[in-house]
Amino acid sequence: MALVRACLCLFAVLVFVDGSAVRVVVQEGSDAILPCSPSTKEDLTYKLFEWKKDGQKEVFFYDAGIHYNNGRSGQDEQFRGRVSFFPDQLTSGNASITITNTKTVDSGEYSCVFPRLHPGQRYTVQLVVNQVLKDRSEENIPGVTPRPVIVTLNQTKDWALLQCEVNGASPQPDVEWQDSSGNRVGSEQPQVSEREGRFYISLQTTVTKTDHYSCVSTQNISHQIRAETYVFLSDKVFESGSGVSISGIIVGLLLVAVLVALLVATKFGSIKLCWNRELEMEQELQRERELEMEQKLLRERELEEMKQELLRECELEMEQKLLRERKLEDRQEPRKECELEEMKQKIWREGKMKTMNLDPWRERKLEEKRREIRKECKEEEMKQKIWREDGLLQLLDSPETPAEKQNGYSTGNSKEAV
Ligand SMILES: *[C@@H]1O[C@H](CO)[C@@H](O)[C@H](O)[C@H]1NC(C)=O
Ligand SMILES: *[C@@H]1O[C@H](CO)[C@@H](O)[C@H](O)[C@H]1NC(C)=O
Ligand SMILES: *[C@@H]1O[C@H](CO)[C@@H](O)[C@H](O)[C@H]1NC(C)=O
Fold this sequence. Notes:
The chain has helices spanning 2-18, 237-240, 243-330, 333-356, 360-397, 401-406, 414-417, and strands at residues 23-27, 32-34, 48-53, 57-63, 66-67, 83-85, 97-99, 108-114, 121-130, 149-155, 160-169, 174-178, 184-185, 191-195, 198-207, 211-219, 223-231. By secondary structure, the protein is an alpha+beta fold. Among the domains are: 15-130, Immunoglobulin-like (Sandwich); 149-231, Immunoglobulins (Immunoglobulin-like), CATH 2.60.40. Strands 1-9-8-3-4-5 form a 6-stranded mixed sheet, covered by helices on one side. A hairpin with a 3-residue loop joins strand 3 (48-53) and strand 4. The longest helix has 88 residues, at 243-330. The radius of gyration is 53 Å and the shape is flat. The protein starts with a helix and ends with a helix. One 2-acetamido-2-deoxy-beta-D-glucopyranose (NAG) is lined by residues 171, 220.
């Protein structure tokens, strides 16, 4: 059993070290995380590790907190500003890095090395960056889909000879000329040549109208890239006629201009009238809205006042109720006094007993006295109870205060009863 486990373990390490198991595939332009965690799983904060591409290019270097992103020099230009590590993961022995905005040239074999660990460790990650169809004219790699280049070969008053060149595209694009409304413009047969799987296309056209012209290069229908030029050709009307006809045309144009001016003026007049009417209507509407607003405010104020009044009434009622309750409580006061008296007696008794060393006769006397007081208290309590209930009943019958005063309430004072 142990042997099998050992074998399995060895196999897993081999697969990892072999590198074929760690393969990272990303789309061009996205970020790639290259994993690396040495088997010792020790805290790497004060250790050294190094990432290289294809065994030579310096990708990332970390030495006890010093690295390429905080001052250390030596990083390969290709990776400058694009590689980061995970500082909070170092303690758990994670030396993975992220390469942002990957390019196809980033594809290759990356090694993560710990030269100072014992035993020294080395891991390999295969990065594959898949190419995405897009405009690569800004990139310096020989064009996959380069932007077309437009050249005006010859131009007279009546026409212009334009040439479009697409150099080194792959796969072969469809190249055509379009005018500003996107219509195809007739052209010569394209000149196509191919070198090392890349296509070089040249397409000429002769245009006779002033317009913006585009050369559009299309790959797989959906992927298009275009270049635009503006061609200005002078108006033929002025060249073809004699001097007399030109002056005639000028007079005609002037007449037209005057007519147009008149038309515009009257139109503006009516527009202005229209505007005035609209303005008046708008103002009227505004006035109405304001009136409505005022009425609404008034109603709200009335409502508020009503609410306040109701509240005041409610408060008054509450106060009266409280007053009634207070009176009921007042009747309980004798009982409290009685209890207080008993308490005093007790304290006095205990004090006396302490000083007099418990004289039995005195003790008996005191006990008698106590019983008496207690009896009185009991009686008082009984009376209180009856009064309280009486009072409640009367309160319920007639909540007026004067009537309450007359029903013998004042006799409920304890001093009178005792
Ligand atoms: C290392 O950290 C990265 C980033 O948080 C994470 O994606 C990766 O899974 C970690 N590796 C291990 C072995 O924990
Ligand atoms: C431009 O076209 C005119 C008329 O066809 C021709 O005479 C002239 O040589 C051309 N110029 C160039 C540079 O090709
Ligand atoms: C684009 O064109 C190439 C070459 O003609 C072809 O191999 C590829 O399958 C096409 N791709 C799509 C998405 O049409």
